[in-house]
Every structure is written in structure tokens, then in C-alpha cells.
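Module 6 notes. Inverse folding takes a fixed backbone as the condition and produces residue identities as the prediction. Think of it as a translation problem where the source language is geometry and the target language is the twenty amino acids. Below is one complete input and output pair. Work through it position by position during the lab.
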């Protein structure tokens, strides 16, 4: 299978804070990006007059309720430009109320998505806890989420994000192995794998194979952090261009290619001090060169 076909490019709207929806769609069309990930979040009132930032104020202020109301219209605009709504990345965990989950499910369905990101319940990070009991509860919450998602034709996906209980291949497998891949899957988040330490691509894809839904693609590298009062240096990371990341991206592409099915690459480049449009263009160019070289 041609890798450009097997791994279509997408973008998360989180990385395009300076652009409105029409500007985002026009840029995606220009760069041959076909999979669009919505960002349904509420910008706090005290940030609405701030400068646009990835995780703060956005020119395209899409709240969860607005996605429910405007999703069909947004979906038509995407389709007219040759794109599809693919997923949503709300700030949403599996232990939310049914009412909250349903709002987000309705929005994702209205926007034409096939999946919705829902994070694992938080765990106590400052003390030891009963992991088997936590895992049982987390699986129960995801069972509820999948049951709620099924009538909307949506798949639930877990982002392997630093700091959550699915950050590594083994931890994620503990949760997803109780589910069919059609109802629950994982997002391989390459920038966050840098924060977690070395994660081997062949092992990761082997452990999670049939549950791999898509990939978050961006750059991150380890840097020296600050010293504490006893002289111990804390670890740190810094977002960077994809070509400078702490993971060897070609090895990850090789491993994912062995799945021999479609796995979208969703770009989320947060390189500091660059506008979102330039970050998207740079990463799209870099990954396209790589995919073409391996398809030749």
C-alpha cells in the first residue's frame, strides 16, 4: 500500500489558534491535508481578549454547544474542500457525567467525526494507590462511554498522553484489551512519548496493533530542567520541529506501515515562536518527504 494512502495527513485545530475555520480549511486544502480534528473547548472569560495561543484564546472559538449547533454546517464546508471531520479533542475524561459526555458525542456526530477522544480518569500522582481497583473502575467508565457513543456511530479513542494512566504501551493495553477495536482505540502520541522516555516503536505497535486508531505527529525533545534545592536536576522537554524531535520518526513510520491499513497522521506541531500556519506547512512538508521516500 502506498504510504501516502495508508497514512493520510490531518491536523488538530488546537495548533491553529490564529485562524478562523474558513482559513483553516483553505490552508488544509492547499497542503493536501484531509483529516480535520475539531477543538470543542470553552475559552475562559479572562482569556477571551488575550493573544491567540494553542491552549488559550482561539480565533475560531468553537465551544461544545456550538459544535452541536453548527456541526452540520462545518461538516459541509469540510466536505466541499475535500476534507472530513475525523475526531474531536475536548478536555474530557471517561468519568464525566452522562450529560457532559452526551453533549460532546452529539457535537462529534454533527461534525461528521468517526471518533472522539476521551481521557482516562485521573489517578493520585502524589501517593501510591490500588492500581487493580483503579483499572477496574477505568474499564467500567470506558464501557459506559462506548455504550453512549455507539448510537452516534462513534468510536472512543484514548490519547497516550504524558501523565495519564495510558501513557505507555503496557498501560494502554491494560485498558483497551477489554474492548473490541471498533469501539475503543488508542492515539499514538509521538511528542508525549518523548516526555515519557524511550518508547520502542516496534514493541509499541506490536502491543497495541489492532487498537491503533491514529497518530499525533509533532516534535518534542528532552532538555535540562531546573535544579531543586538539593542540587538534583529536574527533567524537562521542549516542543520543536518534527525533524528535530527526540524520537526517530522514520522508525515509527516503518512500524506503523506494517499494520497494512489506514492510520491517519494528525499533525500537532507546537514549535515555539512560530505561527500555526507555518508550523503546519513545515511538518506537512517534512512528513510528506518521508512518506514519498518510503513509497518510491
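Target side of the pair, the amino acids:
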Amino acid at each position: 500500500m502506498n504510504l501516502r494512502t495508508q497514512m493520510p495527513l490531518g491536523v488538530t485545530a488546537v495548533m491553529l489558534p490564529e485562524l478562523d475555520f474558513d482559513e483553516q480549511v483553505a490552508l488544509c486544502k492547499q497542503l493536501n491535508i484531509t483529516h480535520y480534528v475539531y477543538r470543542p473547548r470553552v475559552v475562559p472569560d479572562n482569556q477571551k481578549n488575550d493573544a491567540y495561543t494553542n491552549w488559550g484564546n482561539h480565533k475560531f472559538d468553537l465551544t461544545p454547544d456550538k459544535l452541536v449547533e453548527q456541526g452540520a454546517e462545518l461538516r459541509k464546508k469540510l466536505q466541499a474542500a475535500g476534507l472530513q471531520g475525523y475526531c474531536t479533542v475536548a478536555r474530557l475524561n471517561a468519568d464525566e457525567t452522562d450529560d457532559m459526555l452526551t453533549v460532546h458525542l452529539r457535537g462529534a456526530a454533527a461534525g461528521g467525526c468517526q471518533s472522539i477522544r476521551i481521557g482516562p480518569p485521573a489517578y493520585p500522582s502524589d501517593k501510591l494507590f490500588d492500581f487493580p481497583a483503579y483499572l477496574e473502575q477505568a474499564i467500567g467508565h470506558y464501557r459506559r462511554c462506548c455504550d453512549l457513543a455507539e448510537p452516534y456511530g462513534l468510536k472512543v479513542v484514548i490519547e497516550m498522553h504524558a501523565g495519564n494512566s495510558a501513557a505507555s504501551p503496557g498501560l494502554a493495553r491494560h485498558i483497551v484489551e477489554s474492548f473490541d477495536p471498533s469501539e475503543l482505540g488508542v492515539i499514538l502520541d509521538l511528542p508525549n512519548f518523548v516526555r515519557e522516555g524511550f518508547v520502542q516503536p516496534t514493541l509499541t505497535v506490536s502491543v497495541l496493533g489492532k487498537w491503533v486508531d491514529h497518530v499525533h505527529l509533532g516534535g518534542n525533545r528532552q532538555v535540562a530542567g531546573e535544579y531543586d534545592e538539593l542540587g538534583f536536576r529536574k527533567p524537562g522537554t521542549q516542543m520543536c520541529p518534527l525533524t528535530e524531535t527526540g524520537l526517530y520518526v522514520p522508525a515509527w513510520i516503518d512500524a506503523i506501515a506494517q499494520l497494512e491499513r489506514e492510520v491517519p497522521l494528525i499533525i500537532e506541531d507546537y514549535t515555539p515562536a512560530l505561527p500555526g500556519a507555518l508550523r503546519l506547512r513545515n511538518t506537512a512538508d517534512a512528513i510528506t518527504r518521508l512518506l514519498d521516500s518510503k513509497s518510491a
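Reference fact for the lab report: The two ends are 11 Å apart (CA to CA).
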